[in-house]
Amino acid sequence: MRLFRFLRILFTLARHRWDHSRTRGARLRVALQELGPIFVKFGQLLSIRPDLIPEDIAQELSQLQDRVPPVDPAQVDQALREAFGRPHAEVFGTFDLTPVASASVAQVHFATLPDGREVAVKVLRPGIDKTIRSDVSLLYLAAGFIERFSADGRRLRPREVVREFEKTIHDELDLLREAANASQLRRNFADGRLLVVPEVYWDWCTRTVMTMQRIDGIPVNDVDSLRKHNIDIQRLARDGVEIFFTQVFRDGFFHADMHPGNIFVARDGHYCGVDFGIMGTLSDEDKNYLATNFRAFFHRDYHKVAVAHVDAGWVPRDTRVDEFEGAIRAVCEPIFDRPLKEIYFGKLLMRLFEVSRRFKMEVQPQLVLLQKTLLQIEGLGRALDPDLDLRRHAQPVLERWMNQQAGPEAFLEKLKDEAPRWARTLPQLPLLVHRLLSDDTPRRLERTLMQLEATQRRQTWMMGVIALVLALLAVAYILRL
User: How many CA atoms lie within 13 A of 128 on its CB side?
Assistant: First the structure.
């Protein structure tokens, strides 16, 4: 049965392939919609990569960001009744059952709270959890085929990648978790200088419904509207790079679904984020590893990049560092300090795949979300400002973070973290010193050592006696012969 579900992909794509009443982009979009939410998310990622696919297809797939066919209003009404245990008219002041945005997993409605505050309400699609489980099992089947029949199967670690995706997509089905993500991100950018995150209204949140402050903004990919409002497009592109690197290196907590349907721009030119169902996290070890690689790349220190990969175990230990360094240099030098419009990302990806295959690089599942987000950020930057130099604007953020990790600020932070432990330990030091001085442990240890030494001497004497007896017996035996 799982195999039949896999064949469903081929039949669906083939059926729409010959439907000439639609454009080729529309045929692909409709096929992905019918296949389910996971395929819709794949289409969302492709939609911001016009450098990888034809532009007419990218334009059509952009509808998957927030214009997926909506749920019937009666089903929305029932979902709200189940979530709150009463009709939505008794929960909200007003509620528009017609969604303003409809995506693969949920859709958004405008409403007002009883006190008149304007809110956006996100409602999960009914039965979406069952659909997700079915599609994830399909991905596991595909991963199994890759591991079994592909020469690169083990290196790509497809099952682990799917497992990471499964954890992420199931988190997205719990809107209380998403609300907590939004609150955390709002605290991280509390000054509002770079990013505005809507406030969550917890009394109107459940596992299937999330209510937050309504954001009035312009979609980030609507460049014409941004220009009409006199928003500095170049500054917007630079801010996007800084927001991404700040989330990754300062916080280790980043928005991992940054397609245009989730990013808006306020009238004053500030970014506004929505949809926090997919968030990525990085350990200190991952952050330090990435920072080392980015910094070395920015300084064209390809030897350090190669050594970092070997030390982290991303390539086999017996890899020749000089050969790996040369391969990295051949990929990176042609694009160094070039604006986005001069980087052909499709060719770059092919070169990277060739290098990874040659040196048997293993995929790191914990970084798949970050890599996907980096693709989205680069695609957004390309759309806003093709002349953007990623290195020039990312390097100051990275250098500042590295200095904070090794400078006086980091030392003070570590002192603050250790202060509670020292507060408990310091008052006990006099007692510990007194016990150490008054304890007869050293004398007991000395006596034990003397006993061991005496035992060893006795054993050596006995072994000598035994050897002498054996020698005499041997001599007597020889004389008798």
Answer: 24
- Torsion sign, CA atoms 355, 257, 34, 21: negative
Strands 195-196 and 271-273: parallel
Task: With respect to residue 328, please indicate whether it lies within any of the assigned structural domains.
Answer: yes
Band of residue 223 on the pLDDT scale cut at 50, 70, 90:
confident
3-state SS class at 280: strand
* Tokens 């300084």, located at residue: 299
Give first-to-last CA distance, the chain, whole Å: 88
**51: annotated active-site residue:** no
Could you tell me the residue range of the domain that residue 42 belongs to? 2-65
Q: Cite the beta strand spans of 135-245 per DSSP E.
A: 195-196, 209-213, 218-219
Residue 106 φ/ψ, nearest 5 degrees: -150, 170
Q: Which of 277, 306, 310, 311 is nearest to 180 (CA)?
A: 277
Q: Which residues of 345-357 are buried (b: 16+ CB within 10 A; e: fewer)?
A: beeeeebeeebbe
134: left (phi over 0), alpha (psi -120 to 50) or beta: alpha
Backbone angles phi, psi at 82, to 5 degrees: -70, -35
Instruction: Check 51, 239, 257, 385 and give the catalytic one.
Output: 257
Maximum Cα interatomic distance, the chain, rounded to a whole number of Å: 121
What is the Cα–Cα distance from 247 to 376, expressed in whole angstroms? 15
Chain centroid, CA 355 distance in Å: 23
Residue 279, SS3 per DSSP: strand
Residue 396 has pLDDT above 70, yes or no: yes
- Going by their DSSP bridges, the two strands 106-112 and 101-102 should be labelled as antiparallel
- Give the separation between CA 259 and CA 428, rounded to whole angstroms: 56
Q: Which segments within 260-406 are labelled E, that is strand?
A: 263-265, 271-273, 279-281
**Residues 80 and 58 placed together within one structural domain of the fold:** no
Contact 17, 28 (CB under 8 A): no
Q: Are 279 and 254 in contact (CB under 8 A)?
A: yes
Q: Considering the domain boundaries, does residue 31 fall inside one?
A: yes
User: Taking the CB of residue 374, how many other CB atoms lie within 10 A of it?
Assistant: 16
Distances from the Cα of 384 to the Cα of 239, 380, 396, angstroms: 11, 6, 21
Q: 205 with 303, same domain?
A: no
pLDDT in tens, 14-67: 666 666 678 888 888 888 887 777 777 777 767 766 656 777 887 888 777 666
Number of compact structural domains in the chain? 3
471 lies in some domain? no
- Specify whether the CB–CB gap between 79 and 124 falls below 8 A: yes
How deeply is 32 buried, as exposed, middle or buried, from its count of CB atoms within 10 A (0-12, 13-18, 19+)?
Answer: buried
